[in-house]
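Notebook p. 47: complex prediction with pyridoxal-5'-phosphate.
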Amino acid sequence: MEEKSEWTRISKNLKNIFSERVDFAKRGQFTPYVKEALSKKSFLLEAANAFGTPLYLLDEDKLVERAKLIKEAFMERNPLSHFFYAVKSNDLPRVLHVLQGENFGADVASLFEMELALKLGVDSIIFTSPTKTEEETRLSIENSDRVVFDVDNFTDLELADRLASKLKPKVPLRLSLRIRQAENQWAKFGFSLKEMRKAALMVMKNPNLAWAGIHFHTSWNTNPDNYVKNIRQLGEFLQNKFERRELDSIKFIDIGGGFIPGGSGTLFSATRKGSLLRLVADFADDKVCLEKPCGIAGFASQICTAFRKNITGPLKRSSWELWVEPGRFVSSFTTYILLKVHSAGEGFVKVNGGINLVGSASFDYEYFPIVNISNPSTQTQKAIIYGPLCDPDDHWGKRYYGRKCKPGDILAVMHQGAYTYSTAWRWQQPTAAYAALRGKKLALVKRQENFEDRYSGCKF
Ligand SMILES: Cc1ncc(COP(=O)(O)O)c(C=O)c1O
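Predicted complex, structure tokens below:
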């Protein structure tokens, strides 16, 4: 009996999942994106011509627009909100530099990312890696006026405790304690609530350390439920397990990133729906699963209300700040990958850039609009777009907007700003150059990798 009802539940869910697929050839939901690419056609062609292909092209105006969008959504509802760009989503220095101009700090997760943020002069940095090294901890302590050290576990904490006592930072190293998400894949990170009190007491004993905040993070949130649940749980925990004065050093609650940018029609591999369709990628073929995330205002509204109702209100801490660490939301729509058509035949096109540019074989189950900029149209053509790698998975998708490709045409793959350049594979092809477009001005902001870069440090 139980088995039957379980099966009914599963099959109902499956039905819902597949009924949400959209045959994009018949619907116009991607047309606005395609039109946006076409409105920049002359710049895209000029960039491909001036800097060569394959090429990453950053649209700086779009980056600023995305930064403002999330900032305004939160600030309107909670003026004490602060923003830290998750550098791991795209570590091109230019991206962080532009976001500095929007008053973003940096969320860094490794030595190089921290060094980059320090070098660019970012004055508010949060260091959130799950396993800290001695070198990273030292650098955090040496820059304790700019770096907040996010503690993931007792090993991190003992290292910070020992080194801070030895190095005596100019201002006590501010620590935030990360809370573990028990029931999902994010259980790898952070302290359980039970451990948190022990960790907090340990911090309080060392005058070279200051307990400045509490942190949690999950990615791929299509709605605010996870944030609200965490805020509620945290509010109860702080009220029940701490004396009020023990919380006096706290300045912020950091809710992480993880806001899915809505509207791109991407089939996200990390959602249940996405992973299911990934399993049946052949069936999914040129169908696209539409994610319909709550808009950023919806996230901000529920998060800020929960923050007031469960934390700042009952604990009487109106000065506590809300910290937000968006990556994908800010960076994903900002970058085109420009590819040149090498050859075209019946049902296929070969281009001169491969999936090494994005670092995953994700185009089987994720969809991004691809536009033939040289020969545009809002109609689509069906053809597998293969890259140059010696790997059958090296393809960009099964359809493109535009008229039939000929050798030399330029294709623009849209929305390639997040977890692409920063996760790119070092495989066969050089790392492509990155150019940037601001207003009507194009500039090269990173040149293509050359032979010396690739083999630097190798003994010959
Ligand atoms: C601690 C932390 N903050 C922020 C982010 C950014 O997440 P997203 O790009 O989904 O916004 C990540 C990504 O894994 C993360 O681990």
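Notes: The pocket of pyridoxal-5'-phosphate is lined by residues 86, 88-89, 107, 128, 217, 219, 256-259, 325-329 (CB under 6 Å). The longest helix spans residues 2-19.
Next step: compare against the earlier run before touching the bench.
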